[in-house]
Amino acid sequence: MWDASLPALGHVLMAGLPQPDLDALLAQAPFPRYTPYTLTTREELSAAVRTAHSQGWALASEQIELGVCGFAVPVPDEHGRVTAALTVSVNLARHTEEEIIERFLESLQEVARQLQAACTTS
């Protein structure tokens, strides 16, 4: 079941799902609202998942707690299926969304590649 308390992480994980599985999750909308920015409808979540899929990462600003931004990248398995994700939570009083992407994207993607490689050779 979708956990609205993990939006960035959830968006990249859902972006890796087969369409029927994604549709089944999104059919459970509406979801609880934690802040004015929480995505609660099927349409909002679907758009966020499409964006995460096309970008290869997700940023979820203030969706669970005001002032906090979640940022996540997928970790694919050896077959390219998304089986995990890496995420960080950042205080928006210290970083803009643009700074979060600039500061964390490459590092998270590198760790994701290392995890994928380690799991492939195991």
Number of helices: 4
Mind telling me which CATH architecture this is?
Answer: 2-Layer Sandwich
What are the secondary-structure elements, in order, as H or E? Answer: HHHEEEH
Q: Number of DSSP strands?
A: 3
Return the CATH class: Alpha Beta
Cα distance spanning the termini: 29 Å
CATH superfamily: GAF domain
Query: pLDDT average, as an integer?
Result: 92
Briefly note the structural class of the backbone: alpha+beta
SSE topology:
Layout: H1 7-15, H2 19-26, H3 42-55, E1 58-61, E2 68-76, E3 82-91, H4 97-121
Antiparallel strand pairs: 1-2, 2-3
Helix pairs in contact: 1-3
How would you sum up this structure in a few lines?
The protein has 122 residues and is an alpha+beta fold. The chain has helices at residues 7-15, 19-26, 42-55, 97-121; strands spanning 58-61, 68-76, 82-91. Helix 1 (7-15) packs across helix 3.
Describe this protein's structure.
The chain is α+β, with helices and mostly antiparallel strands. The chain has one domain: Beta-Lactamase (2-Layer Sandwich). It has four helices and three strands. It has helices at residues 7-15, 19-26, 42-55, 97-121; strands at 58-61, 68-76, 82-91. A three-stranded antiparallel β-sheet has the order 1-2-3, with helices on both faces. A hairpin with a 6-residue loop joins strand 1 (58-61) and strand 2. Helix 1 crosses helix 3. The protein is flat. The termini are far apart. The relative contact order is 0.17. The model has no long low-confidence stretch (mean pLDDT 92).
